[in-house]
Write the structure tokens for this entry.
Amino acid sequence: MGRHDWTNSLYKFTFLLAVSLASLVRSAQISIGNRLPLWTWECINDKCVPTKPVLDGRMQSLVTCNMLCSSIQLWPKPTGSVSLSTVAVPCRSDLFQLKILQVPSTAVYGYLQDSFNLFKDDLRRMEPSVRGYEDWRSIVIRLVVNGSADPRMRVGTDESYRLSLKPLAGTGNYLSVDIAARTFCGARHALETLVQMIWLDPYAGSLLILEAAMVEDRPRFSYRGLLLDTARNFFPVSEILRLVDGMGMNKLNTLHWHMTDSKSFPMRFAVMPQLAEYGSYGPGAVYTPDDVRAVVRHARLRGIRVLIEIDAPAHVGRAWSFGPKENLGDLAFCYDEDNWASTCREPPCGQLNPENDEVFAILEQLYSDIIQMTGVTDLFHIGGDDISESCWSQNLENRAAVAEVWAKYTNEVLRRLKVVNQNSMPNLTIMWVSHQSERIKTDLKEFVPYLGLQIRGGGWSSGGVEGVRSIYSREDAWDLNDGLGDWWENARPSYNSWQEMYDHRPWGTSGSKNVEGGEATIWSMRLGPELEARVWPRAAAVAERLWADRPEGATRPVHARLDVQRTRMMARGVQATPVWSMWCTHHPYTCV
Ligand SMILES: *[C@@H]1O[C@H](CO)[C@@H](O)[C@H](O)[C@H]1NC(C)=O
Ligand SMILES: *[C@@H]1O[C@H](CO)[C@@H](O)[C@H](O)[C@H]1NC(C)=O
């Protein structure tokens, strides 16, 4: 930028931020009584330090100091080159304009418009109702998307973007934002980064934006997920949407919806409503296809795909008990087991009957419906965890070894999946790692290039299978557990702190060959109103690990940056647990 612009902006900057205490008191935005409870933050040696202001002295709020002082405050941290101005100028949600200069399709055009509206909604949410300034900048966002015509997050979608923000030459009060991306998803990530450069300054009573910035960014891993279990306890759609909002803020891209389990089957599939009739917790605890489509739409606009998992062949329950009544034979076994401990990992038990062809016919219809509803044709999850040998061996006519039964079952499931997906295997079909996983390469040979193993961790399940793609979600690191232990036993409670989650690099320092990415998981046996607070900001830590995979662990600057991100999420309407006490927030870099 030209010398003139810079000087000009420095002048304006001084004008803006020299909010004197006296003027604050006059404008009555802050009631201070007859004492002075306020602090001003000064950037000293790259740290924001609170000091007592003097009357008529300069006032700078903590958030503004954090944004302008030293380190990059973006989360997840960009992986390419970044430079951010240390100058802020006032802005307003209604003075942003979008100019779409180039798009590969009308679909992408529409998504960009919608995404820009979400961007403005975000600003409005932060914006004060009383505005304290008049020196607003007008901001023109110029967007170029020159790659994929498909707005969906796909396997292999190029999520990179380049963002350049600067004063528009020759104008006193215009800024331009140039965004270039290959896909809609890349462009929406850029808007997400831009939102992070805008904040409410409580002293100035205005939104501020960095005056100049340059960011080049692309994720390290292509699969960045969050699993929500809606079977153990039910969550209304509104809560799922808020979870998706938080995911978007952290550039996670896959909502793994662990929809059904042996506990409940809360989805009314049009093709097979009996499953919800027999398996849901009752009215008010059932999702409809419209609900799913609402989540899918909400997620897509945030660069997120919805991956629905109907867990099978284990982890099925009463939902599948209607077979005999409807002349379909036994669809499942063991769901009425009192002595559950020998048959499954957690009550109630239940396992599909792989000798009954009706089971496959039903799964095929469910898979078809899932693909229709989500529009995800290149990614699928077939479940596959915790198969009980004793349940099958007690109930099957053919008492073959469980591994053989598993192989036959899984082959048939994959074959049917391919059929309903227009005779094409989804690029990545995920199953949970299990005792049987080693047999993938021999027993599921033709499917190997399309398979992915989700690694849960702990003993036998902590590693993948050579030559098979993997997604990491080790329970001992990336499970958003509550530290209460399992409800059915006196287990030793554990709790994964955000620091542990951040430090965790399951692919090790050497190779990450065949690693598609990873996922934070939240199981809902003891989860209710505190959903968001349990997830955030810990899942944000996983999000940065997966986006940037920086060599550093949870160091001091990471604490400070995550704290800023947590504050930002709260400002945008997402509940997140504090990283530390407010004192530490007020004294960054002193607490760790
Ligand atoms: C898209 O634009 C980038 C520069 O922003 C360029 O490197 C790339 O080749 C372009 N791709 C296509 C398909 O035009
Ligand atoms: C899956 O998609 C990726 C990225 O588009 C591609 O490189 C790979 O060849 C695909 N794998 C299969 C088995 O089609």
